Amino acid sequence: MKGNIRIRSYGLTMLILLILLILMIGITSTIGSANIGPMDVYRVVASKIPGMGGFVDSSSITASQHSIIWSVRLPRVLLGVIVGAGLSISGASFQGLLKNPMADPYILGISSGAALGAAIAIILKLETALMGFSGISVMAFVGALIAVTLVYNIGRIRSQVPVTTLLLAGVAVGQFLTAITSLLMVIYNRDMTKIIYWTLGSLSGKGWNPITTISIPIIAAMVILLFFSRDINIMLTGEESAKSLGVNVERIKVYVLLLGTFITSMAVSISGIIGFVGLIIPHIVRLIVGPDHRILLPASAIVGSIFMVFTDTIARTVISPMEIPVGIITAIFGGPFFIYLLRSKKKTL
Amino acid sequence: MMSISVKNIVFGYTATPVIRDVSFQVDKGEFISILGPNGSGKSTLLKTINGLYVPLSGRVELMGENIERYKRREIAKRVSLVPQDTSLQFEFTVEEVVTMGRHPFKGRFEREDERDRKLIYEAMEMTNTFDIRDRLITEISGGERQRVFIAKAIAQNTGIILLDEPTSHLDINHQIDILNLLRKMNQEKGITIILVIHDINLATRYSDRILLLKKGSIIGQGTPEDVITTENILNAYGMRVAVERNKYTGHISVIPLEVSKRIRSELNIRVHVISGGGSGQDLINVLYHRGYQLSLGVLNAGDTDWQYAKSLKIPVSEEKPFSGISDRSARKNREMLGDADLVVMTNVPIGSGNLRNLKMACESLENGKRVIYLKDRKYEEFDYTGGEATALLERMIGKGLSVVDSMDQLLREIS
Prior knowledge:
The complex is a heterodimer.
Chain A: H1 2-5, H2 10-30, H3 38-48, H4 63-97, H5 110-124, H6 135-155, H7 163-187, H8 192-200, H9 208-227, H10 229-235, H11 239-244, H12 249-271, H13 277-289, H14 293-317, H15 326-348
Chain B: E1 2-11, E2 19-27, E3 31-35, H1 42-49, E4 57-62, E5 65-66, H2 72-76, E6 79-82, H3 94-99, H4 114-126, H5 142-155, E7 160-164, H6 172-189, E8 192-196, H7 200-206, E9 209-214, E10 217-222, H8 224-227, H9 230-237, E11 239-245, E12 252-259, E13 270-274, H10 281-289, E14 293-300, H11 304-311, E15 316-319, H12 327-339, E16 342-346, H13 355-366, E17 370-374, H14 388-398, E18 402-404, H15 407-414
Parallel strand pairs in B: 3-8, 3-9, 6-7, 7-8, 13-14, 13-16, 14-15, 16-17, 17-18
Antiparallel strand pairs in B: 1-2, 1-4, 4-5, 9-10, 11-12
Helix pairs in contact in B: 4-5, 12-13, 13-14
């Protein structure tokens, strides 16, 4: 039974997923108040590629359609692609590294650190932008990094970082920082709504600027993360077993934690804390492609993108013109779907 | 050729050392077992040998070179480890797990080539895991999983394989299965095997040499015969055992008797036992542990009952092996009989060699001693003396010999 559930061919799996992602980008970009067809989206994109402009017939697209696609829809969809990919690949690598199915990108205190940073920025009204980032983004990023540094140093025992102490340190620091954020919200209750909205996560109204800035570092970090996929595989058999197979366990742990933290902090600082994606997508993908991180990591990234773009479209359209924070949608759709997968998988065992 | 040389290593997780000044050498192609009670540092020693732990002092040499000079990957090309814990929650297939054994030889994005495939398939064939190669590691039995991890170590294609209690959670058939596999690799491929194991009898049966650890120090190393002695086991485990050659496998084996710390309550009743050929073992065991003061005889040196009595330090009037009872040993036996409050004889077959035992029992009976005949064993033939023994026994019954059919009945009689 299990043999046919698992897709073995690496190339084919990735190809199918990529096609799905491109289709998803095209379709979701058309959904909205303005009337735009999927092909228009691809035409606009193609016309923007240097050297391609002459070959694409974009005469049927009006200037306003062009502007909506290029300035409003596409940046938002692509931000979803980046954030979804980043959260999912971090979640997948953390779950493997920590050998813990409950692990998600936020488990080491990133979310609570970022939330506290963002809350402080909101309360202090830090509107000044730094390198094109809003004050909230910068503070969230700094908060996330401080939290993880704290967790890592508490969890560390001499030169080693035992998984259990790391996880417990993450929980403890997370709870502590969340409590401070809550306290701030109680004291400055004027800003409470804004803080809560931020923590629920959103991809709306960011424009091109943050994407161009975060996508390169995030993609670079994701690619480097792939370098360690076989090491993570072997570390699943136990740390000592992995060492005896020549894996430099402690070093790999630090690298993967650093990369995952970096990706997640970047994503969170722009989009707020979008929950569930980084926890559930790796599980769903693992059910389909198996636990080999060489395929699990890239496949999680793409499936995460697809899921993120899909849920964000729902978030911005379902009660249009109002927006629902996308974090709510990810949980509402992801939860039942995952439970369904879990149940149907159980039956085959 | 020297594979591994351990020189005066001391290691501890904290300030208290777990390994204290341990030195030994392993030659290429040896099969070595590390034995010792729980907490004696067996697993720690094994991991130190593999360079997983860095000793506080002393050093481990791999092929003549300090292991700390090697990179992890270089050690992994020479030594493989089968860990104690082979649980794996992630749903890899058996083949994927075995393939991990090739990791030290592969670059970051390098795929397994023909040679790797061949080694992986060979390893699976050897361990009988080829047929389950597509099954998930999470869905196979403990014995199968153990074999898969051994296959992974074989696929690593190293000259040395270390195993940390590979048989501890397995049924006896799987235990023998695994050890036969290790012996096969040892003998056919010349792979050096170093094994941490709990079962002393399995260790003696398969190993060339044994290291016996107690509280982090080696208290015996050498052939199974040299190391597995009553004294060493008592010293290491605080356990009284009988050591004998197993009559089926021919290997040294131990029979646990009594934890030495447990003080048995001594009774002031002397019992002389007449037995032989193992017929007295249960009897001796039961009486000994109930605290009776025992003596035995006459027994030929080397007899099963003799060995057993010796291991319990019970006085025996003994005769040279395969000899009839001489006057000298008979005299000693009569002294023992004289001191005894009670004589118990088993229904050991009587021939010309031990007829004298029966006669002496008869004398005691005539002298007014209480003699009990324990007839709990089934022998095809009792009398190898042409009727003499049977006649004597009948005469003894006439004079008040009590005959009992079971140990329980005997215990009721004497208590």
